[in-house]
Amino acid sequence: MINKTSALTRLGAAITAAALVAPMVTFVASGSAGATSLQAPASFPRNETLYTSGTAYSPPTNFNPLDGGSRYTGTIGLLYEPLFLYNPITNKYIPWLATNGTWSGSTYTLHVRNGVKWSNGAPLTGADVAFTIGLAKTNPAVPYSSLAPYIKSVSANGNTVTVNFTSPPPYTDWQDFLWQNAVLPKVVFSKLSASEQVTSANYARGKSPVATGPMLLVSTSQSQACYEDNANWWGIKQLGLKFHFKYLCDIVNGSNSVELSALLSNTIDWSNNFLPGINTLMTTGGDSSFLTTYYPKSPYMLSANTVWLEMNTTKAPFNNVNFRKAVAYGINTQSIVTGVYDGIVKAANPVGLLPNLDSYVNRGVVNKYGFHYDPSLAKKYLAKSGYKGQALTIEVPNGWTDWMAAQDIIAQDLNSIGVKVNAITPSANAKTQHMINGSYDMMLDNNAQADATPWSYFDRVYQLPIQKNDGAQLNVERFSDPATWALVQKAATTPTTDKAALNSIYSKIETSFLQRLPEVPLWYNGAWFQGNTTYWKNYPSSTSSSDQYTPVMWGNWLGAMTTVYALANLRPAK
Amino acid sequence: MTRYFARKLGLYVLAFWAGVTIDWAIPRLMPGNPIAAYVDRFALNSQGPWTALYKLFDKAFGYNLPLWDQYWHYWDNLFHGNLGISLYAFPEKVTTMIAQAAPYTLALLVPAILLSYVLGNRIGAMAARRKVLDNTVLPLGYLFQAMPYAWLALAAAFYLAAVEHWFPVEGGYAAGLASGFTWAYISSLLYHWFLPFLTVFLVSFGGWSIGMRNLVIYELETDYARYLRALGARGRLVRRYAYRNAVLPQLSGLALQLGTVIGGNIVTEVVFNYPGLGHLIYTAATDQDYALLQGIFIFIIVGVLVANFVIDIVYIWVDPRTRLSMQGAAA
What we know:
Largest interface: A-B, 95 and 90 residues
Distance between the termini of chain B: 10 Å
CATH topology of the domain at 100-283 in chain B: MetI-like fold
Number of strands of chain B: 0
Oligomer: heterodimer
Strand content of chain B: under 5%
Number of helices of chain B: 14
CATH class of the domain at 100-283 in chain B: Mainly Alpha
Strand order of the largest sheet of chain A: 1-9-10-11-2-12-20-13
Strand content of chain A: 15-25%
Number of strands of chain A: 22
Largest sheet of chain A: 8 strands, mixed
Order of helices and strands of chain B: HHHHHHHHHHHHHH
Radius of gyration of chain B: 25 Å
CATH superfamily of the domain at 100-283 in chain B: MetI-like
Radius of gyration of chain A: 26 Å
Number of helices of chain A: 19
Structural class of chain A: alpha+beta
Shape of chain A: globular
Largest sheet of chain B: none
């Protein structure tokens, strides 16, 4: 007979032993299967490393500048670089891989900077730039392929690149291309098929991609990518820009609470997370003197994009301008700014253009036609709108807690003027789908991103024809206004230097916008930034005369605006 | 015996087919379109490239095919060990991602479950007959088990990590360390492992000990225990028999827990930003990463089936009734 008691005891002992051994075995396994080391040091010295976070939502698996969906933070900006940068604080362009570019009729001539080298040692030439521009014509999947119909020819002669456009040239679209897209190495990308050019990871473990930028990729793991200073970067000699950290590690985002804790425990130096209540932490004093933001006071953050209320204008009651006005006058945006955000965002001006585009906003037009919070006026418009009391929905993605709180306030405000509104929260993907196929009543949305001109903003409002499957989210509210759309197209083909002509066009567009309200701009989302001064100091600040740069590592900011200057200004705290 | 296993095996194959089919279907029933959401991340300013990219990725992931084709390809790839490519971390292979995350989850949960099982059963059984323990350890067990786990984990992360700085706040190891057989790396792993481990251990310890206490009390009141005592058997012997009978349901519970271990503990891993499979499931679900979600669930399905199979065998070993019934069936 088997002694079962001892069998059980043995089982227990075996389990206990397994429990104690398991962590060692599996950790050793994770050592070999987990992170990939290139020529990285065993550990990055804390006082030589800048830790950034808040921009990456998936592990570093992709460093292809053309894959806007998965490319990791730093792909553009630290590795790849554009021809120009845009400074949203001064509203000026900075020559980057190009030293200048000029229009002559419908021909644009670019001079590519001398002395720039790819990380494989080969010089950057006009051929690389011409190849990059030429992709617009050969590969419809590159983000700037909308330029294709306007480009007649591209040619390079040494470091001079000549682009011939149809007449009139797409001035604005081209200007946007110059700072929003990176120059690609012809030697790498010309060997790929059109689909590979977009879908390739452009990364073999152990090798930094062939690029021109200030840093090289040294290691990736599931949770971070680390870069090392590129000693041969052209900016050191030519612009006197030098990073005072040796390494930069960008950490994949965790939850808001994880990121806040990491910032407070000095694990992260530079955070681009939205951390609700950060201003309370900063102003209550105590032990938070090591935190810094761009503005020392409200709104603390630079403005990054416009949150607007989209109404589906293809159906009643949203197709009635009086109803849209009733909504605009009925929402107390200030109570969202203070109640939900505690003042870390700014209320939008009625036109909705970001503060960097103030010079395009016609104050007279805004004063005459702009809306403001006025519930009694809202009720008057509502009475004229033909609204029959039907129940409507407003939606934001589930989990976007600030927007969820904001839309509750909006629903409350609208209910109190007599519009029946239910706030719903589908998943982010479901909400995107509703936006694309137009199956929604009202939603909050911020798809118009920071730009150097008002054009892309109004393009998003007015573009025609209305797409059935509106993937690029242009004219999501499905508003048909051919006259204003013609003005937007005219703005696109007006030289970007002809400010007087542009302002006259934009004044007309703004007038129409405020009179017919295809969108209701509410507030500006912030370019969230929190710096920790324990290891690094000289973060960008509105109070410094020499350091007003964009403290933002987001994909469309790092390699396009002035973040590289901000990084070069950082100094060790000790 | 052979018939017993043949029948079991048949059931397992059927369960595997059903599990894998549901695994394939469920992500596709979620609202939203993953490819549209992916191309949305490009933040494009015009429709032309959007359409081109959408077609490109739709084709690359095979979502342009009819559903039956997709289902067929899925089985075909599965038998070739190909779990597909992740959308969320494009273009990483799902198998690579699972291989990177699995060690963290196993190292976290296997010790926590096994240690809590052994200690929980022991202490629960002791508490059934010792007033002191019953009045001290058990209420604690109830407390830990009844407490919402997410709250316990957040409280631990906040007080022990963010406020007191005794433990790291997040991650599998310190940022800035390269993996390798260095003391710095291994100690950092253990340091980051301890707090999530502790919270999982405490909660499951509470569960096991309460269950065991109640089971032992029940067994001590059964007829065979009374009969044994009436025969004059020593308390120790009676308790041993009671324990052996009480441990059977616990063992089934253990098998289930170990089977699902590969799925990770989503809440723990999200709260501590621990890079295991639970964390991957969470991100795969929110990003509608079909391939990644399916890949992890296949491991869970296989894990549960294998654990059940093992427990079937262990039952023969520890439960004479099973063994005898099988011999009866064979005879």
